[in-house]
Amino acid sequence: MMTTRPSIKNEQEYKSALEAIEQLLEAEPGTPQGAEFEVLARLIEEYEDIHYPLKE
Q1: Buried-exposed string 27-51: b where 16+ CB fall within 10 A, e elsewhere
Q2: What is the pTM of this model?
Q3: Taking the CA atoms of the chain, what radius of gyration do you get in angstroms?
Q4: In 3-state terms, what secondary structure has residue 31?
């Protein structure tokens, strides 16, 4: 079952997501914690792509 979270909407939510994912760094794939890590990673990446784009 995939964990669902709303998108990250502001800097406070972004920082909170970073703190949460730090706690899940060693989560095993295929576990609920691993799924939560994957969802957070995707949400963080989306937020960073919009608010902290890499300059080419």
Answers
A1: beeeeeeebbbbbbeebbeebeeee
A2: 0.86
A3: 12
A4: coil
pLDDT tens sequence across 32-54: 999 999 999 999 999 999 999 98
| CA distance linking residue 19 with residue 5, whole number of Å | 15
Report the alpha-carbon distance of residue 43 to residue 51 in Å, rounded.
12
> Which residues make Cβ contacts (< 8 Å) with residue 17, sequence separation at least 6?
8, 40, 43, 44, 47
DSSP state, 10?
S
